[in-house]
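Worked problem 6 (solution included).
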Amino acid sequence: MLEHEQKHISTHIEKTAGSSIVKFLFDFYGRRNVMIYSADTDSLYNADNLVMLLRFSPHMDKFRNSKVGRELSPLINGAAINVLRFESQLNNHTKENILSENIAAIHGHFSADRFDTLIKNTFKTVILREPLQRAASHYRYWKTARGVLNERINIPYQNNMRFEEFALLDSMQNYQSKALGTTKIEEFDIVGIAESLESFISKFVQMRGQIKNNKHSNLMHLNASTEYRSCDDESNLNFVKKFKSLNELDYEIWNKAKLLNNAA
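Solution. The predicted structure is:
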């Protein structure tokens, strides 16, 4: 029997420190007690699943960030998705029997209200990121993987699409707000920001208990990408202005998240 009665629902918005947080969840709960959600199949998989073992392996992370790894990213991602699809045909991973007492946390690219009808007593967390920086990181990841991604919203790949075009797509507008579903930002137990993971972990430990081996003290930003570099020419300033106008909801919750973190 695990210590926490509330199951932890960890909504991971794409490119918001997900690799760092999932490592912390493994350390805190134990890997076998964490389920990973696949948006492509709308299914849950134990973190000990072979695909998930590779997906969250430090050695695999190092390889993916290498020149060869980046070139093979579409093939690697495609193979992983196909394996998960095959497994989902054999088992219905979203049935209540998989959400047994020994499962402490569910993490992945799902709407924050995805499991509300299945699980009544939950501990919800989410991490937000400055919207323009998040969009830029998303674009770089999309380019590297040539659009072969397992995400809530998958954008068909176009080799010549510029970042400014990508960021202004209808499907990319208010991307973080859409991930909250019907859950208001104030209803999460913890709202973190990617720029201050230490604050998130501090609040988490305060509310959920001390991790036994203090691994959280060594939490690092894994797979961190460089920030969007704006320039002062008129076309760029117009783009930034338009982006902020189209993403007012994202900037609203982003500003609330910053206030919540400053108040901690």
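Discussion: The mean pLDDT is 86.
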